[in-house]
Amino acid sequence: MSQDTPDSLIPYDEIVQEALRAVVGRVLGEVEATGILPGEHHFYITFKTSAAGVDIPRHLSERFPDEMTIVIQNRFWELKVREDGFEVGLSFNQAPAKLFIPFPAITGFVDPAVNFALQFQAQTDEAAVQEHDEAENDHPIPEPVEDGSNVVSVDFKRKK
Prior knowledge:
This protein is an alpha+beta fold. The chain has one domain (12-153): Roll (SH3 type barrels). Helices cover 18% and strands 29% of the residues. The chain has two helices and eight strands; from the N terminus they run H-E-H-E-E-E-E-E-E-E. It has helices at residues 12-34, 58-63; strands at 43-48, 67-72, 76-81, 85-92, 95-102, 106-111, 116-119, 151-153. The strands form two sheets. The chain has a five-stranded mixed β-sheet, with helices on one face. A three-stranded antiparallel β-sheet has the order 3-4-5. A hairpin with a 3-residue loop joins strand 3 and strand 4 (85-92). The protein is globular.
């Protein structure tokens, strides 16, 4: 009997990633429905700028050719959550911009008010991740969660 784990014919990693991205959609949907962020909640959302379906202004895609983090806190408008992603208005250097981000493009979601974070597998080639500038539309990215008690990181590796 072999000690190697066989390759699964069921795409568990994709199913789990999709379910966790649905958490982001549900949270944003509740903010859309109420029109406000409850309490001290605010979100840092990191996404692949070159992923299929991402629609951001040209100057942002030129500045962030790989990955970008946005902040949804005080200055956002027209948040609309769809089945495939979300649209939001944000200000960058005092200039308003409309962004559409498909859920599969999201690589990270953080709510620092409650030390909650989700990290997703990038849906691109296994090329090295490029460094990206911090979010410019609001506050800088928070310090990493120290105890990790509310951090969910899903990274499936198959044994070959």
